[in-house]
Structures are given as structure tokens and as C-alpha cells.
């Protein structure tokens, strides 16, 4: 429907939603490390005058941990949640005509892999607490949709992966044709680009697009590449790149493709490779926050590459080596909040 527009990540951002780790999350085995990681993440946002809405289980405790952050730029909301990946259960922002709408889609733990009963209710609780403005909230939880599984240019084009959205454990294995109709009616996206290739070792999400390829202004797609023929990702990412070259804009033009480096392999304590990727960045109106992995050459190359796509943005790196231990990174741990969706009191 042409009166609905899915907002791109870089447009009109007022704040960032994160969830602080606690003992009942999967972070419990390295809780102090995880707390330090989130303190660093929130500090990077507040230092760049981005307001952070911090979900937490204990306001007093988390407030003490964040005492070195600028209190003018974060708000604490005590609420229940299973884990910290707000990208996938935070509300998705659209504009319908002149009206802003916060869409609350269903979340089922990435296709029933993990417990998600509290995560699935976060947006509803924010609505009930009147922190999410009453007139903006729309219950769409009859359809499973994770924020990390979709990318848009803000002009009706949506980029996603068939492995995720067509998963039988999400919406019963609907076909691309069925999903195209749903994505158009609910998000206003009438031009859907389906990636059939691309996967990272250790990924729990069934190939979320935000680990593989991202849309940027001026018909740009940034994508994760692999130049090492001996790397386990080489063949899959090569097929993904080939498919990206076939994609066309609404006007029938090829996209401007920009390749991001693949980080050197990072492994967990048991020797399993973790899904480190530079594609998992967060971009706001004028600042881009990118994950780093203590790999100076790769980190610098990724920063320079992102600057090509976002030349007017300040690029801020955040070490995400702890985040990656739970198979996510910076974008997974955040959800941007555009202006006009949440009660202004939360930003005071």
C-alpha cells in the first residue's frame, strides 16, 4: 500500500533501544563481561548525544553501573525480557500518510530456537506503561518478523533473505509470493529483493540480512565479502555477491555494490566459529556506530569502506568481542527509535 512507508534506519532518529544483561539472560556465565560491554556501548551512544532507552531488571543497580554516562542521554525502564537482542523484538517504525505507527510484530526466538515469552511482550508492556505513545502502537503479533531480517531504502524497497522469512518455524513456511503481499500490505514495501545465498558460521538467525548485506542511500548495498578461497564462507558469500549483481532498483538500474571485509575468524572456548561481521553496524542521522574486533587492519578497512557509503557521517567504532560470544553484534543489540513514537517524558 503506497500510503505506508517503512522508515530507513538513518532517518529522523531520536533514540536507541537496548536491553541490559542480567542473570536470567544467556549472558549469566560471563555476566560481568557482558555488563562492561553494554556500559561501553551505551557510553559510545551518550558521548555522541544519542539518547538511550535502557531496558533493565533493576533500575537502581544499572543506574550505578552507568554513573559515568551522561544521565541526560539515557533513561532506565524496568521491565521483563528474556535476552538483550532488541533489534529483533523492538517495534518497527512506519509512517502511514502523515501518521507514525509503531508496529509490534510477533517474536518467537528466531524460529522457536530460544525462549522468548517476555521478549515477545516488550512492546506491549511499553505501550501499557504509556512509554510507547498509545495512538502510535499497532498490534501485528499475528505475523512473526524480526528487525534484523529486513533492510529498506525508505522508498518501498525491502532487502531480506529467503532462509529467514520463508522458515517454516516462523510463519509456517509461506512462499515468497505470499510474503510479498504481506510485506507490501503491512510495511508498504512493493519491491522485495530476496537473497537466497549467504550464511555465517555460528549464526542462530537463519541468515539475518543485517549480518550479510545492508541498504544505504543512493542505491548502495554494502555486503560482506570473502576473498580467502580456503575460508568456510567463501563459496556461500561468492554466490551471494553474484546474486546481488543481478538485483535492480525500482527504476531498473543495478545497485552500487560496496564490499565490506570479513573479520578474521573468531572462535569460542569450544572451537566453534562465531559470526563476526562488519555489516552489523547501526546508522543514525549523522553518526554510524560500527563493531570492531581488535583486528586493526580489518577494523580500519571496514571504517573506510563505510565512510564511502556514508561520507557525511561520523564513524564511531565499538569493540564488540564480548557481544559476538552470544552470536550477535552491535546492530543486533540495538533498535533505533525515530522521533514521535515514544512519550516525550522518556527523553526528558
Question: What's this model, at a glance?
Answer:
By secondary structure, the chain is α/β, with parallel strands linked by helices.
Q: Which tags fit this structure?
A:
348 residues, four-stranded mixed β-sheet, alpha/beta, L-arginine/glycine Amidinotransferase, Chain A, 17 strands
Question: Which helices and strands occur, and which strands form pairs?
Answer:
Blueprint: E1 4-6, E2 13-19, H1 31-47, E3 51-56, H2 59-65, E4 74-78, H3 86-89, E5 92-96, E6 99-106, H4 109-112, H5 122-128, E7 137-144, E8 151-152, E9 157-161, H6 162-165, H7 168-171, H8 176-187, E10 191-195, E11 213-216, E12 220-224, H9 234-246, E13 256-260, E14 282-283, E15 287-292, H10 296-309, E16 314-319, E17 335-338
Parallel strand pairs: 2-3, 3-4, 6-7, 9-10, 12-13, 15-16
Antiparallel strand pairs: 1-5, 2-17, 5-6, 8-9, 11-12, 14-15
Model description:
This protein is 25% helix and 25% strand. It starts with a strand and ends in a 10-residue tail after the last strand. The chain contains ten helices and 17 strands. The strands form five sheets. The chain has a four-stranded mixed β-sheet, with helices on both faces. Strands 4-3-2-17 form a four-stranded mixed β-sheet. β11 and β12 (220-224) form a beta hairpin. With 348 residues, the chain is an alpha/beta fold. The protein has one domain: L-arginine/glycine Amidinotransferase, Chain A (5-stranded Propeller). It is globular.
